[in-house]
Amino acid sequence: MKLIEVSTPAHQKEFIEMAVRFYKNEKNWIRPLDADIEGLFHKETNKLFRNGAKSKRWLLHNDNGETIGRVAAFINPKMKEKQPTGGLGFFECINDQEAAFLLFDTAKAWLESEEMEAMDGPINFGERDKWWGLLVDGFTEPNYNMPWNFAYYQDFFENYGFQIYFKQFTYARNVQGLGFDEKMIARSKVVTDNPDYEFHYLKGKELKEKAAEYFMTVYNKAWARHMGKSITLKEAQMMFAKMKPIIDEKLIYFGFYKGEPISFFIQIPEINQIFKHVNGKMDLIGKLKFLWYKTFSPPNKMLGLVFGVVPEHQGKGVESAMIITYDKMSRSSDFQYKTIEMNWIGDFNPKMMRICEQLLADIYKTHHTYRFLFDSEKPFERHRVFD
Known about the structure:
It contains twelve helices and 13 strands. By secondary structure, it is an alpha+beta fold. The chain has two domains: 2-168 and 368-373, Aminopeptidase (3-Layer(aba) Sandwich), CATH 3.40.630.30; 176-337, Gcn5-related N-acetyltransferase (GNAT) (Aminopeptidase, 3-Layer(aba) Sandwich), CATH 3.40.630. Strands 1, 2, 3, 4, 5, 6, 7, 8, 9, 10, 11, 12 and 13 form a 13-stranded mixed beta sheet that branches. Helix 11 (318-330) links the parallel strand 11 (301-309) and strand 12 (339-346).
């Protein structure tokens, strides 16, 4: 076996194409957009490099020169952990533990040379909402920007010594035909009977001009202390600008108290139902296919991205009121979505898990994020639980 550091355009192409060959017989694998993967490793398209981030990629060849594995390692200065922690991701390997361990060893050696003391994997070289975690249960079609992998990878990670740092659950439920937990209904009524509360989806001018501001306001109160950073209005505006091609105004929902934004949930159509037809490329043909399927065979599944309530209104039934008032709206005959999946619910977030359970949603997929401590004598700690 021979390791090749990715350093040429040909290597970069092979880093993408080898996965296509690996999964060619897997009916549930959906090819990611090539640009979504490759763009992570270039300073022109990944701003983390401007803030001191580093990365390396390798291909693993067998004695015949065929690619049998790949891996990336990276250092993200935004990762704040007790010990300096790097990342390992975009791992693919034939069913051969020796080959897998060689790839792990290579990533570990480079991270150690950069003074890291642990590595998390498989994770993304960027934010947690993309390419994060190892799929261990629910091997159906992946949602957009979510990983899909062979089941035998789990043994590789755990046999090497990786330990579960946290689990990520994807919950699913039908949009119509299901009720709600009785306690949830009662809590909702307390809020909806109060005229100071209002809930509606954003449309037209309000969506265009106010969505980013509303989102920033609620996010910075509800999530910033957990995620370790707040967002600026410019960042929120950029997020909505990127989502513009796929935004459905019926899926952007906010709660207000005396006219001020206090809660949201942001959903998008599950666009992997479209991207599976473009073969990883958004060239002219890919764009035409995207527009055709978006128009004539649109997604019937919606994907929950993020949900938040500002602290001063938590525990009052706002979460329940948002969900139940939205449910009433979604029962109209022109609502195209049949199912909803709530993506990326960490096992360190029991509040969100309870909300999903009260929605009568079931765990549909499970991903593991692992951590490997380079000094085995140090105590291992799982991700702290959000209060």
